[in-house]
Amino acid sequence: METVLYIVHIIVCIGLLPIILLQSGKGGGVSAVFGGGSSGTVFGSRGASTFLTRMTTASAIIFMCTSLGLSYISSKSRSVVPKSVTNAAQTTGAPGAGEPGEQSSAPGTDSATTAE
């Protein structure tokens, strides 16, 4: 499920770029560069603005839904390290794999000494 959300999210992000850039702003925008004033007539006299506006709205809604879904899924995960790796490190006695509240000190240092 998470992989599907990632794929949809990336496709929507990439799709939003041309959809937004093709919209004509107050100054004509990028769409005026590709054919002057007649570039808006590709989808009809007013069809391009309506079509692109609807595409932008739909893409933005999908983007927000996938963002919320991915943030919900990531909030359920507490660690970026899988439990199998953590369990293997604890059973093999790997350095730094002590108890959660346990502090480790660097080799060659004594935690009982104080700085003068």
Folded structure, characterized:
The protein is mainly alpha-helical and 116 residues long. The protein has a domain of 32 residues. Helix content is 57%, strand content 0%. It has 4 helices and no strands. Helix 1 runs antiparallel to helix 3.
Average pLDDT across residues?
Answer: 73
Give the CA-based shape: elongated
Unreliable residue runs: none
Output the structural class: mainly alpha
Could you tell me the strand content as a percent range? under 5%
Range of helix content: 55-70%
CA distance, first residue to last residue: 56 Å
Q: Count of DSSP helices?
A: 4
Describe the main β-sheet briefly: none
The rounded Rg comes to 27 Å
- How many β-strands, per DSSP? 0
Spell the H/E element sequence.
HHHH
